[in-house]
Hints:
By secondary structure, the protein is of the alpha+beta class. It has helices at residues 48-58, 154-163, 178-186, and strands at 13-17, 35-39, 61-67, 81-87, 89-94, 104-109, 113-116, 122-127, 132-138. The longest helix has 11 residues, at 48-58.
Amino acid sequence: MVPLTPKPLSAVQLTKHHIPAYQNFPNTSLRPYPLMIYHSAYPSCLMPTSVEQHLTSVGIVQPAWRYTMYRQHHFHSTVHEVLVVVDGSARLCFGGSVSNPDKVEVEVGKGDVMIVPAGVGHALIEDKGSFEMVGSYPKESDNWDMCTGESDEKDKNWDNIRKLKWLKGDPVYGDQGPVVDVGKEGN
Length: 187
């Protein structure tokens, strides 16, 4: 198998979103790290195995699963999440609820990468066909939780997010890239 090479940074469209807290979803309100979407970071001819091999070789995150996204709005308080679309396309919602006036709804497709900071609510709104992602977490993380915005989660989980370290490098590009730049801004 030929190693997968992401597109050069200069050819990737990047969008960053700061999403205020909404109900019991902290989103990006607790830390300076935005939701980031690398549009078409990988060529559309990618295979899930080659994405997993590339992410593993960069060494920032460890691929953990292949799946779609849950329709239930949820967030993680113990890890930042890296999602790479490896098949199909979908409309996703970030922000904890479709009724959140500050939500981010975006259509993603094969080759897109999403860096989802801990606390950012996310859910599948519409699978537009064969939607599948590779989900990854920082290598030093062996435990990720799933919080659904219940009021009894708030104190402990929001405190976890405040203490969580940022990614040690860019999962796609290594020592350079948007994650590294945001980490410098956040420190």
